[in-house]
Design brief:
- This protein is an alpha+beta fold and about 70 residues long.
- It has one domain: Factor Xa Inhibitor (Irregular), CATH 4.10.410.
- Helices cover about 30% and strands about 15% of the residues.
- The protein has a three-stranded antiparallel sheet with strand order 1-2-3.
């Protein structure tokens, strides 16, 4: 059986958590846009990663990046 190609932008946008759970994590959107107007606190909040909750998104990411590793 041949290998499946990974969608490169998907593999850069999502990560799996280390450990037993291996939850799918994403970064907040809008990080690199209109930063001059925002306060330091607001810009700092963009550094957080959030867990992906929607089942449809999880399914889509698993199809696009089947070999997504823990990092």
């Amino acid at each position: 059986m041949p290998k499946i190609k990974t969608h490169k932008s998907t593999s850069k946008r999502f990560r799996r958590t280390k450990g037993g759970k291996g939850r799918l994590m994403r970064t907040k959107l809008g990080k690199s846009h209109l930063r001059r107007k925002k306060s330091k606190r607001a810009k700092r909040l963009y550094d957080e990663t959030l867990p992906v909750e929607a089942k449809g998104v999880k399914r889509r990411v698993s199809r696009l990046a089947p070999y997504l590793r823990e990092k």
